[in-house]
Every structure is written in structure tokens, then in C-alpha cells.
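User: Can you fold this complex?
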Amino acid sequence: MTDTMTIPDTTGTDVFEDRESVVRSYCRNWPVVFDRASGAEQVTEDGDRYLDFFSGAGALNYGHNHPALKTALLDYLSEDRVVHSLDMFTVAKRDFLRAFEETVLRPRGLDYRVQLPGPTGTNAVETALKIARKATGRTDVVSFTNAFHGMTLGSLAVTGNSMKRAGAGTPLYHSSTAPYDDYLDGSTPDFAWLERVWADGGSGLALPAAVIVETVQGEGGLNAARPEWLRALADLCARFGVLLIVDDVQAGCGRTGRFFSFEEAGIVPDIVCLSKSLSGLGLPFSVTLLKPELDLWEPGEHNGTFRGFNPAFVTATAALREFWSDDTFAAQVRERGAQLRTGLEQISARVPGSAYRGRGLLAGLRFEDPTLAGRVATEAFDQHLLVETSGADSEVVKVMPPLTVTAAELQRGLDILDRSVRSVLAVAA
Amino acid sequence: MTDTMTIPDTTGTDVFEDRESVVRSYCRNWPVVFDRASGAEQVTEDGDRYLDFFSGAGALNYGHNHPALKTALLDYLSEDRVVHSLDMFTVAKRDFLRAFEETVLRPRGLDYRVQLPGPTGTNAVETALKIARKATGRTDVVSFTNAFHGMTLGSLAVTGNSMKRAGAGTPLYHSSTAPYDDYLDGSTPDFAWLERVWADGGSGLALPAAVIVETVQGEGGLNAARPEWLRALADLCARFGVLLIVDDVQAGCGRTGRFFSFEEAGIVPDIVCLSKSLSGLGLPFSVTLLKPELDLWEPGEHNGTFRGFNPAFVTATAALREFWSDDTFAAQVRERGAQLRTGLEQISARVPGSAYRGRGLLAGLRFEDPTLAGRVATEAFDQHLLVETSGADSEVVKVMPPLTVTAAELQRGLDILDRSVRSVLAVAA
Amino acid sequence: MTDTMTIPDTTGTDVFEDRESVVRSYCRNWPVVFDRASGAEQVTEDGDRYLDFFSGAGALNYGHNHPALKTALLDYLSEDRVVHSLDMFTVAKRDFLRAFEETVLRPRGLDYRVQLPGPTGTNAVETALKIARKATGRTDVVSFTNAFHGMTLGSLAVTGNSMKRAGAGTPLYHSSTAPYDDYLDGSTPDFAWLERVWADGGSGLALPAAVIVETVQGEGGLNAARPEWLRALADLCARFGVLLIVDDVQAGCGRTGRFFSFEEAGIVPDIVCLSKSLSGLGLPFSVTLLKPELDLWEPGEHNGTFRGFNPAFVTATAALREFWSDDTFAAQVRERGAQLRTGLEQISARVPGSAYRGRGLLAGLRFEDPTLAGRVATEAFDQHLLVETSGADSEVVKVMPPLTVTAAELQRGLDILDRSVRSVLAVAA
Amino acid sequence: MTDTMTIPDTTGTDVFEDRESVVRSYCRNWPVVFDRASGAEQVTEDGDRYLDFFSGAGALNYGHNHPALKTALLDYLSEDRVVHSLDMFTVAKRDFLRAFEETVLRPRGLDYRVQLPGPTGTNAVETALKIARKATGRTDVVSFTNAFHGMTLGSLAVTGNSMKRAGAGTPLYHSSTAPYDDYLDGSTPDFAWLERVWADGGSGLALPAAVIVETVQGEGGLNAARPEWLRALADLCARFGVLLIVDDVQAGCGRTGRFFSFEEAGIVPDIVCLSKSLSGLGLPFSVTLLKPELDLWEPGEHNGTFRGFNPAFVTATAALREFWSDDTFAAQVRERGAQLRTGLEQISARVPGSAYRGRGLLAGLRFEDPTLAGRVATEAFDQHLLVETSGADSEVVKVMPPLTVTAAELQRGLDILDRSVRSVLAVAA
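Assistant: Here's the predicted assembly.
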């Protein structure tokens, strides 16, 4: 049964067009070929420079090729040290665990066990969902409207976007949806619904294993939960014995002005997912943090080939030591976040129906007319600024500079954005 | 609602024990701390040398830190080239696509579209399952007894191991199991069951979207399907319009003596999953290969933060150019595979009830008494050889040297294995 | 493999205890053996008479053994006419369809197709859910907190009670729960949630096939929906193309003062389920009413052995002709309903925290202390009145006399109830 | 939101066409209106007489309106005895339980608890599945190719027919299919597959709660399992602690020559479902029989409005006393079964590719050309014999006379069938 495929002669043609799946997406809005990058800047093969306020969708919080991280990695690789080790012990892993304990856990009074799943955010989320179900013996997980937690089947079941959900090709199971903060425009008391149904044996909704939440919905429109809402959620979960999972894949690693995005609210989740900027240099890496009493796995019960990727340990360790040994860096991020908010609100003031969304350096502008955001992003690209859109209808322009952005760079980006908005509105008018 | 956690003082203690989740596994059998590695050798922080016939569970087919790959990566990183790019266009991605076309696709007459999902095997499998369901409009997928396809929820549903399945904490959906080659000891004609139920409107089994198969079951006991069985499967699928997915994550990239493990059978799957050794240096990377008519995605319908990890493009390109420009390397792998088989069969000849399992350099010894395999692996470790076990009852010692292993190294490993078996049997006797 | 079972000698013992499954329930509260019955009265084998304000949980709206219905049945049976006919044509079925058209459909301006599924309420509900899914191509169905729709797996999935749901022994699928009228004590606008999530492509909740609702929740605590709430629901469904199913199994057939319980609200559901009192004499019978455009079945696509039970056609026809040829009977039911409400409210006035619940002759008293209702029912039984409890915590005493009850009988029952409440409160005080 | 429906004026038109759902089925093949019936005969409103070898799909084993049953029912109804009682105690229920114990259980050495679910076969099956899942704590149930167990969602999940399964409008869960006896034409050893996968922790198939089986597949083509196959199944289940459910809804109540169809094989199922002919007169009635150790229900955990239908108790008691007090009747059924087999085999001998299928008075002729069976049934109807077809492709003519059929009547039916086959073949030739 040997098929024979006819192969087109593609010599000299566009190999992206010919070979890469049509699922490719960002390249459609930014149809250039990037080659070099440094800090907040990407450079195409033709030498065109772009100010990058996209930051790898949050995977490049310290900018491209930060010297401290890069040097550590080059040193490690040059010395023929172990690259790939699954869950064997390595020196690099030990260094990472120590750095994480010393710079992240201990200063915050947090006692988490560190699980190293496959090196992507969705893997960390799948891990969190599994252990929450195992620990509680319950199956359902509550997620929120417009949540995004990943594309593998378990994570997709707790993701809101209907196009992405339909991509599963099967129904999605064991999740139910609750309204995110302010989803119903303040018309209903927070958590009235969950509190009532969890207490009511006739509600039809069984007590869930867990609630999973993003403190800021990076893909779902940059909705930011109020600290008091997060505290009420944590309190509700505690009262009912429901585990609280914070998916800090996008909002964590400093993006909102503290290492964890939930610190501001003063809550301590039962489980935390980190990925994206954890390695710092853009290397695939993720961890799932578990309260010790939840670390109930059998050895190897969850595994994955790339769960011990030492180059990521190395750059993550370098990043933790470089940026998180004290609050200096975080304070600067909060300052830049304030600058970004001011800038966005100034633009918004001129656009009826538009509004600031987000928190820290994970922020943007929402437009009532959902077509505007995409047109603004396109215009910005033409002016050599990379910003993407967010939200179910792509109704938000999302501004996500590296955390290391200078005040001047940030202002430059805001100026481009301002011009882009004016330009789009001029055409629209 | 601010919890306060009590943090143990762990200064000077074992940070692995204190911080890493108990899910860790390999380190339990190999309780040393590795630091350096080269070719077929890993070295602990104390300088102890181990012959590595485990090869990162198949992620290190070219050995540790192969110079050609390492040099390419160091060069790339030193020049501040783009590390992380999602699905933007980059020079490194273009180079990879061209290399893949020139060394892999074109010489084999294969016309696949290359999808770049999240960089792990399970991500490639989830992607394959999604597109198979989308393309056919059907939901079920047939997998085989003792299959292993990954730990995220979609892949887990087509995985056989009951301990791993139970880890999901929920039922698993839309998969059904069929007997792998020789599962019923030759007592039933191949595919009698599938052929009958697919044709019978009263069977209770709907026509599936796809069948997913490993040509050699790397985790499930090193069962190797006969070429004629694979051809019959491909033929059956074609007759019923069921898509054939080959999960070549472990058996692919040369492991069985050809780039794809299914080449020997002369079949052309509709979808192929590659990962593990695709980057060559142990960097997270995976691709899903789709026949062009199956490339039916909406842009961004499946995505993932690390779906464009340029360092992996770079080392993968280097590996393809180094090893796959002609058949020289593959021929050598086949030769070493023959040597391994001979060696294993010689050992087996002395152990009643034991038998050779596998194909190429993905092979091992199955023991009737399932406790023997683990004891042999432990004894081998004591003699500084890394081999793991495979199978639902860990009943197989799995021997998986790098493909670059020399004849002498291979013989040295076989000798250690031989001594280990003798030693275990002596104790058992 | 012939098991041998040891059979206890049960001669002379209680065959109910020895042989009937422990699932039996009503007999536990009413431990007497009934033998005869007429109108609102049941008589035990010992000649004890009970006033029956339970009415077969709504299956005996015209009282026990109503002469008009009984005579019709005896005549039919005596003449050797067809008893069992599946979905063949019979004279009895034709008579029923004509009577249903003339007394029910035509006077109300309703154009429904009549489907005859298996003769139980849950069968009618399963039928409704199937055709709603088939007609819309969607899978999910929204039901309400404290709903009860039946015990087979499809109906159970839209039922609220957690004990009954757990009885399934598997998860329940493709349903989601919304708050019934006043479930959140007026704190949230009606349907704010459903309206928002159905419009939002990021909500995580796909548009459902249907909403299924009881206008009064007979098992779930006698909550009665306001007409304006029902109208808003019907309007919402219409705007989104979601089908509206009214489960009128318990509240229909005149129980609330009109043939259909939804008439008062002035809505026209897409699908209606009737059973219980449809045959009038307590014979198993149910119908599913479909708007003609939803009658999309293949012949035999849904079937069932007892879907054509002619004795039920005969008594149903007699009942329709006897009671529903004009509004006289319904007007009298509404009058009795008012009398019942007044009586219950007078009792309630003396019990702090208690409140009237329900509508028409489907009403009761809710107690804040959920143990009171059961104790009142027990006391009433001792005084030879049959009333049951309702609600997730059995917190409501449910009063459900036959619709044919006289004003004097009703008063007699209310007096017993009054005495029972006083007696229980005296003990409690 | 008051819809107004336009109602067609249907005076004088065909109310079946106008009002009854298009799901109706038998009336399409037999387009006459039946009115009277007695024994093996049905009479239309126009006085045409039909020999009924369909017997209500097995619900009329004692023929239409058997005098002993009818008299008992008329007496009961005339005396105003309780008709509808849910699971209260009644004299009629006690009489039934005693008769069932004395005529069925005790003589066969069987110690079952009798559960009275809703009065249809599918309700009995749903009940069996629930309790099997509850008792074992497992979720999956194995059913067989071409099984038919009912149309509600739980029963449908263990039913084979793809058209009926698709009618669910959702996926069906927690069932898996195994080959019925001789499904694979003898090419594989019985139960090789189930035995292997249940023992193998890597098979991907968890141990099920139960296996559900019909000894003869009444709807699925009249395949009859060999006694040794049933014994091997019972033995396999016992060894693995899997419950064995026999669905005796169609094959039970004497249809195969003994009260239970499984008696011939000498097995004792853990759970048995009975319905159809249990009431004897065609009244809706079903029971689920449970080994005492499986009677683990909470009171009311499974319920249903019509679970205590006293008229069915009365006719069932009369039928048990009339036909099952000794083996006389059963012996006569076995004799008629032999006569039927001889007659069918004589016809078959003249039709190449045709074959006898079934057992006892549940038998038929299978044709290789699946269109023949339907044409034969149509021809038979024209000659005033009612026989239906069976099988996924309606490839079997199913002959199911009342068990009370006389030898002469049976011969008359066989003669008509013979002529019908000749006539159809003549046309085909």
C-alpha cells in the first residue's frame, strides 16, 4: 500500500507558503522575516527595525537576548553540560530550585512544591487540573468567561473562546463557566451564584475540584480582576474546600509589577502555573507549584520528555538572580505600568467608547467597534511598532512591552500608538 | 484571606527532597546528580561516568552535545538572533523548513505540510487528533493496546497504561482500543474485528476519525509491528476513509534505521508526529506533518507560546544536514541495530522465558518474571550503564543507545547488561 | 458455571420485606397496605380510610377510579379491543388524537404534532431532548436549579438533585444549570447571565439546543415561576434560536388551573412533555408535543414497546371529553386553588419562617427548619391525610389533592394539616 | 411573547397524518386501522382479519386478550381497587410478588430481589446499569455487537444500531462493544479479547462494571448465543468480578421455551431485566431482578411515577398462575419452537444464502440479499400475516407468534410465509 505523493517543485518559491501549515497566524499580520533581536527591538533580515511591544506574548519579559541570561546559557552550553535530563537530578536543576526558593518563595513566605511538567503553559495547566482532581476526588473545574488556559484537551475545556473550543473536534468535559469580575456590568453581587449552588444539593452543579483563574485575562480581552474580587474568590474556595488554581502563565513573572500577579490581592492559591517568561530568554519552560499537602503524585504518574530542560534552568536561574533578588526591578515595572496607563488613558480620552483595560505592563485599549483594534495594530506595524489584539472579537489593542523597557522607549511606543489611533479614526471619520 | 505558610528552614538540606514534587521518577532509580555529558556518556558532579543507553528516552539520538549541533547553536545565540518568535517568520525557521524538505521529504517522495505546535510530543499528538477530527467530522480515534501517546488529556485518552489513565482524574473520551500486532498471540486474524465493525451499522462502534499507531511501542513494552501488519492497517484505513496517524515521536528520527520508522513498511500515513530527537540536541521541539488536503486549520485555531523556538530550528537544521543528507548514517544505525539484536538474543538464550523485543536501536529483553527487568536495570546502573524498563509491568529492559554509538561502545554496554543479567539470575537462583 | 442460590423460607413472612428492593420509598412513610380507592380516598386492606392529597404524585388529577373513565375502560376491555399496538393505527388512537385536537389544541390555537414515546414522563423528556438536539445540531441543554425531569440518563442530566444525579454512577453530560426564578433572592436581573454568555463568543458556554423548564417545580420545592419570568425566557430563547421545552408532566393536565401550566404566561413552547394525569385513571401514558417544523424524525428513530397503549388512549379520551370540553372544570380548579392558598397562608401566618409555595392545586408550605416538613407529613398520616414533602432537603409539605376535590374535602384536609402543624410545633416548642 | 400558530382545518382529514409525529413506523408497513384482537388474530375496523406473528414485538406472548388475564383485570377494575400507587404497598403488589416467588423464583432456585422501575424495558435496563455502576464503583459497561437495549440515553449507549445511536444527538458514553457469539465467523476464540484486556494494565480498557447481554438478539438480527458461549461469558465475568446483566425483555417470559431465556445455559446472571410480556396482556410493566447483595439502593434513589401499576400486577399474577405453575406450557412452547424451526428450514432450503436464525418462538430467516426480508414481510401482509423484519439492514424476517399459538395456526402462518417467499423470489428471478 505505497501511496505516491506528487511533490511540487518548490525551488526558489516561498517555503513558508509551500510547507508551513496554514494554521500560522502572527506572520499574517506581520509579513516580514525577523532575524535578530535585542531588548525591545526586533530586526528583519532586510534590516528593518521594529519596536517590540508584544514580547513573545509574554515570554520575553526581560526583552530579547538579555546579556545576563545569554551569557549564562552560552557558558553552560560551551562546557558540554547536560542539556536534556528528564527528571534526573542535575546541577542546573538544583541551582534553579535554590534560586527559586531564595528569590521567590522564601521572601514571600510561600511553601510550594515545584513540579516540572512538559515545558509549556498548557502542560502546567493540565498538571494542575489533574492533581486538583486527584486530591479532591472530584471531576469538575470552574473557569471564567473569556479565560484562556491552553490548547491541549484538558486546558481547552477550561478555555472560553468558542473558535478555539470548536477546534477540539469533540465536546469538552468537566468544566463549567462562571462570570469573571464585572462580566455582568456590576448588576449582580460577586459570587452570589457559586456560593448558592455549591451550598444547594438541588442545584445540579456538583462541588468542583477547583476553580482556575487568571488575575488578568491576557487573551480574553485584558480584563483585570479587582483584588477584593480575588480575595472573595479565595475565601469562597476555602470555605467549600475547593482548590484555587491561579494560571499565572501570562500575568506572572513580574508582568503586573510583582513576581506573582496575585500578590497584590494578598491571596495564596493552592496551585500556581508559571511558564512563558520563567526561563527569561524565551526557552520553553514551565512549573506547577503545589501546596505540599497536594503533592500526592505517584512517581511518574505525570511525565513528559522535556520536563528537565537544563538550558531553561540556567537562564531562569540567571533571571531570578538578576531581577528578583530584591524589589528594585518590580518597583520599576510598577512605575512603567503607571506610565503606560496614563498614556493609554490619554489616547482613550479622545476615542468615545474606548477604555483602558489591564494592569501593570499587561494593558491595552478596548474599542466599542471591535474592528478598530485590528486596524490600529496594522497601522502601528506600518509604523514599526509590534502590538497585537486581544479578546473574543479582537476588540482590544494589547500593549505588552518588555518589563525592561525604558521610560523613553515606552513613550516612543505610546506615541506611535497615538498616531495609529488618530490615523485609523481619521479614515473611519 | 491571607494564608500564612510555615516554611521549613532548608538551608543545607537536599533541595530536591524539599522542593521538587514527588512525581519525580528517573532520579529514584539513578540517585546521582549529573552535570556533564558527551556522546554516549553522562558524568556526575562527582566525576562518575555512566554509559548512557537511555538517550533521554529517545530525545538524544545523536548523543549528548554533538559538536555540529552545539556549534550551530552557540553561533546562533552569540549573534543575538531571534530566540522566541511564535509563528512569525524567521530566517531560522525558513532554514529548517528548507532542510526538512531537502533531506527528509523530497528524497522520500513525501508531500507533507509542516505544523509547528507546542514543542512537546504530546502537543504534536493533540494537534494530530484535533485536525483528524476536524477533517473527518468524526470524534472517535482508535488506538492500540499498550500505546503511549502523551500525558495531556487528549493524548492520554489514546494511551493504554491504566495508572497513567487514572491520573487524569476524569473519564477519558472518544477513544477505543484495538489489539496491537500479535496482542492475542496469533489466535485471531489481523484486523478481523475492525474490518467487521466498521462495515456493520449495528456494531455500536461508529467509524472513527483516525487510527493512531506507533510502529514500535517504546513505552508499552517494545512490541514491534510487522511491516505486513502496518500495510494491512494502512490499507484498511484507506478503504474506510479513516485517517492513519503514525506517532513517530520515539521511533522516528532514525531510531529504527530509517528517518521515519514507517518507511520499512512502505506506507504513507496521513499524519505524522515527530518530536524528541527532532532538534537533535535535546531542545524541546515537535512537528505535526499533514497531507496537504488535511491542512484545514483556521489561522491560530491551534496555537502555543513556544511553537516557534528558533534554537531548536537551528539544531534541527544542523542535525538534518549532518546526518540525513544521504543514507550513510541510517545504514550504520541498521548495522548497530543488528549488532544489538544479536547481543540481546545471546543473552536471552540463557534466560528461559525471555525474548528479544523491538527494532533497530529501540530494542530490549522481555522477561516472563516482570520483576527481573527492574532488577537488571538496577544492577546495570551499579555497573555504570543507564538502561530503563518498559511495559505495563516494567517487564522489559530497554536498550536505547545513541544512534551515534560506536560498535565498541555498544559491545561494552551489552557486556555490562550480560553481567547484570547473570548477577540477577544468580541471586534469583 | 451454575451458581446455586440459597433461598430463605419465606412462607408466612413479609414478602415486601423479603422480595421487594430496598429502593422502595413511599411505603416507608405510609406503612399500610392499600387496596381500594375512590375519588380523594384510599382504603387499606384493613378498612382504614385516608384522605389522599398526594394524588399519585400528580398522576391522579381526576381522583381514583373516576366513573366516566373507568366505564370507558371496562367497555373497551370487555369487547376484546386491541390493548397493545406499538405505533400501528388503531381506532382508540384515532379517537384520542381527535379528542386532543378538539379539546386541547384547537381551542388554544396550538398546532403541535403528537409524538407517542414510551409511556412515562422520563421517556417524553428523553424524546424532547433528542429531537431538540437533532433539530438544532447542538448538544447542550440548559436546565434550572432544583429541576426534576426524570431518572433515565438523559433526563437525569437535566435534573438538579445531587443524590439522584449521583445515582447515575457516571458523570452526566451536555447539560448546564441556570438559576430558576428568584433563586438568587432577587439580587440579580433575570437572565442577565444567559443573555450575556449566549451572545459572547468567549464565554465558554456554547449556544444550547434547548432550555427545559417546569413552570412549577413539583419535586424541587414547589417554586413557581412568575409569568413575566417565563415570558422573558421564551423571548430570550426565540431571539437566540434556542428551543424552549416545557416539562408539563406534573404541572400540566389542569393542575395549575388551566390544561397547560404555561397558558397563564401566554407563551407557546416549542416542545411540551405531558404524562402523569394524561390518561386520567393512572395508566402509564405520555406524549411529546412538537411544533410541526421540529417533527424531523426518521420513522422508528425513537421507539419503545409500550408507545401505543390503547387503554390509556381510551381513558385519556374520556377524560378530555369529560373535563376539557369547556372551561367549567378549569375554573373550578382555580377556585379550589385559591381556597388552598388561603388555607395554607393562614397556617403559615402562625409559623415564623414558613411560606406558601406553588400555584393552583400544586402548592405547599416551606419551612425554614427543613426537618419540620417531614414531621408534619408524618403527623398528617397519623391523622389519615396523605401529603408528601418536596425539595432538596424535603423542606416543603406538598399539598396536591385531586382536581375534583370538593370544597368541603379540601377544607377537611387543610384542617388536618393545621392540626398536624400545631402538634409538631407544640413538640418542637 | 404570545406566538400565534396557524392551525390547518383538519375536519374530515386523516388525523394520523395531520397530528401524529412522523416517527411512527409500523403503521407504514401495515397501513390499516386495527380495532379488535383475540389470541393470534387482529381485526381491522373494516373487519379484515390478520394472523399476528408479531405479538407486539414480544409483549403479547399469551396472545391478545387472553380470557384468564382479561377477567382478572375486569374484576379488579370493577371493584374500584387501587390502580396507581407508586411504591406504596398494595394487595395487588403483594399478590404479584408471591406469585413471582412461587412460580418463578423458588422452582428455579433463584434468590433475586425484585425492583419495580418505570414500566418499560428501557427503564429496567437503565436501572440495571445504575445499580451495576453503584455496586462496583466502575463506570463502563460492555455490550455486544447488534445489541438492542432501549432508547433512553443510558440504554442507547449499550445499543448497537448506528441509526438509533445517532438519534441521541450527543455522543454516547461509558460503553464498549465486544463481538457477540459467532460475530467473527468463528475466526477467533470466544472472549480471547475481553480476557486479555481485562487482565492487562496497559490495554487502555478499564475493567467494566458489567456486561449486558441478550441470549437471542431480538432486534439485532435474531442471533442466538450458544449455551457454552453464555457459560464462558458468565465464568469470565465471575473471575474478574464483572457483573453479568441479562436483558430478557424480549427473549424472557417463556419466549424461548423456558421462563428465562438463560435457563437452558444453566447460568445465573447477577441482574435480569424483564418487561414486554411480563404483564401478559400488553400492559406496561417491567422489573429488574437483583442478587440480594446488589440491592444497595437508597430509598427513592431511582424512582418513576408509574413504578406501581396495579392492573399490570393483576394480569401478571394471573399469567404466572395460569402458565407457569408447572412445565406444561413451557414444554408446549418448546414443541412449537421445533415446529417453527422445521418449517423455516424447509423454506430456507429453497433459498440459497438464507438461513434459520433464533431460538424457540423467537426465530426467523436471514437472507443474504437484505432487501428480500422486507419484501417477504410486505407480501405476507398482503396475505394477512403480520411478520416484521430484524437486523441492522432489516435482513431477517422475524417470526414471533404468540406462545399460545396452536400447531395448526403455526402451520398456517408458515404456509403463508412459504408462499410469500416463493412469490418474492419469482419476481426477483
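The mean pLDDT of chain D is 95. The interface with chain A takes residues 170-171 of chain D (CB under 8 Å).
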